[in-house]
Write a sequence for this structure.
């Protein structure tokens, strides 16, 4: 007999009610208990144009859930003596630059390498993620990296480039495509016949869902232009992902030791424990060990979470980018375990800057409750997390708590930080106008304007971009999304921190990208 409450199904259906109306994309959801399915449902449409409903066999992108498959393949190759997670990356990939310190395969798999995310690097080189590009473009962007975000092993920042490199290593060692290796070693033996790597959006396939984003005028198809690999290119179905999740509870493919290694959180140089293992997010939620991974792609969101000591699992796959899959997975767990939401922590609305650094975020009051916004987007808080309020995102190591003086104490990757409010309407000490270059990455920037606002124009061999900038502090600027202003609650793309000879760009996944005055 299930431990779920009598109204379990009705309460889950209520969580997805916004995706059940006519003309709406939707999601598929399943819940398992000790290997037995106790709930499953499909909401909305797989294809709006043809009114095709979502179903258990609908094929949908799962995005970064691909990373756990990539890491399992790496562990299989290690078990066969074909590589070691302690190998330096350059042992396998000659095009990867050796920067300030050596980087290992284990650090790629745990997001602790310090490499900059190559997808953000493309965007900040003027190549839109919607513009067609191939895998060689990704290699070229990685090869031009001129510095690390941080010392490897000292922190965690999500990095698609690490898993791009791991998937390249798999193909090189096996002499086969990622898809072929995946089929031979994982999906074939498990009978996951609808799970594979879909390299690019726009492909035609039977039962493949269309993927959607929400615009003012309504729903619209959304496709990326880049070729995807082991960092986020897989497609699957609800039925297949249930099989995969149950295999992690009771392995038929892979070994218990492999999955335990993947679920073991990283330990930073300072001795603190992080929230990411090897290709899996690992955390303690409401006192229970939760392990899984989510995915975000063009017009798609997904989440697979296992409460590993309780035999409880949740799978969510959506064909739109409006389903908050990570948070919804946790709400389903709250219903199942009967957990009440903890009291909100009082975090005063406003923008905050790290003292002695360039990290900036905004606290936004939504229905009277604080939410978190930075260059990576907006989301709620887990107010029950040990040590304070943790942004309710799968990939973050930041925990915040208020102080009596109006500042916020923070802990990032085990290191204390202090955040102070930024004053509205700030002016910079001087205009940032001028020409700047990063020669190693073939980037040129021209900035015009005064000490309050300006225009940022970048060009490179990959493309060009233009966006407004607004002063954030005496020595800090916001780089905004094109066509936006700086009203509260609107995200920014990056900050520009003024240096003695130029500025450093900092985004969600790129830190200290240096430009010198030309």
């Amino acid at each position: 007999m299930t431990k779920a409450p009598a109204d379990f199904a009705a309460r889950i259906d209520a969580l997805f009610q916004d995706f059940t109306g006519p003309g709406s994309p939707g999601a598929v959801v399943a819940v398992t208990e000790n290997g037995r399915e106790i709930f499953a449902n499909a909401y909305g449409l797989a294809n709006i144009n043809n009114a095709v409903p979502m179903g258990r066999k609908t094929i949908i992108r799962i995005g970064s859930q691909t990373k756990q498959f990539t890491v399992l393949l790496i562990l299989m190759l290690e078990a066969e003596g074909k590589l070691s997670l302690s190998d330096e990356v350059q042992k396998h990939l000659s095009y990867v630059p050796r920067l300030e310190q050596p980087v290992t395969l284990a650090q790629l798999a745990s997001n602790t390498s310090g490499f900059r995310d190559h997808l953000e690097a493309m965007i900040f080189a003027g190549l839109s993620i919607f513009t067609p590009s191939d895998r060689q473009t990704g290699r070229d962007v990685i090869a031009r990296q001129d510095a690390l975000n941080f010392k490897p092993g000292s922190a965690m920042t999500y990095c698609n480039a690490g898993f791009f490199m791991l998937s390249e290593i798999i193909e090189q060692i096996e002499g086969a495509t990622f898809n072929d290796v995946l089929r031979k070693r994982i999906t074939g033996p498990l009978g996951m016949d609808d799970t594979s790597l879909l390299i690019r959006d726009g492909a035609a396939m039977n039962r493949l869902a269309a993927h959607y984003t929400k615009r003012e005028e309504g729903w619209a198809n959304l496709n990326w232009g880049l070729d995807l690999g082991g960092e986020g290119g897989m497609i699957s179905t609800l039925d297949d992902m249930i099989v995969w999740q149950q295999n992690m509870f009771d392995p038929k493919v892979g070994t218990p030791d492999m999955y335990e290694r993947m679920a073991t959180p990283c330990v930073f140089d300072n001795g603190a424990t992080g929230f990411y293992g090897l290709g899996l997010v690992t955390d303690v939620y409401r006192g229970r060990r939760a392990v899984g991974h989510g995915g975000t792609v063009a017009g798609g969101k997904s989440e697979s979470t296992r409460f590993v000591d309780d035999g409880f699992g949740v799978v969510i796959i959506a064909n739109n980018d409006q389903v908050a899959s990570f948070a919804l997975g946790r709400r389903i767990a709250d219903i199942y375990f009967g957990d009440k939401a903890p009291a909100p922590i009082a975090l005063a609305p406003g923008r905050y800057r790290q003292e002695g650094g360039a990290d900036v975020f905004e606290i936004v009051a939504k229905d009277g409750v604080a939410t978190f916004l930075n260059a990576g987007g907006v989301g709620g808080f887990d107010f029950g997390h040990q040590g304070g309020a943790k942004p309710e995102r799968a990939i973050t190591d930041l925990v915040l708590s208020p102080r009596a003086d109006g500042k916020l104490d923070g802990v990032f990757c085990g290191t204390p930080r202090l955040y102070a409010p930024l004053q509205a309407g700030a002016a910079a000490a001087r205009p940032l106008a001028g020409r700047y270059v990063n020669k190693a990455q073939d980037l040129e920037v021209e900035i015009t304007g005064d000490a309050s606002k300006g225009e940022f124009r970048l060009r490179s061999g990959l493309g060009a971009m233009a966006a407004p900038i607004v002063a954030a502090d005496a020595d800090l600027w916001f780089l905004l999304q094109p066509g936006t202003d700086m009203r509260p609650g609107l995200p920014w793309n990056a900050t520009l921190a003024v240096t003695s000879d130029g500025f450093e760009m900092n985004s969600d996944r790129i830190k200290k990208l240096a430009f010198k005055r030309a």
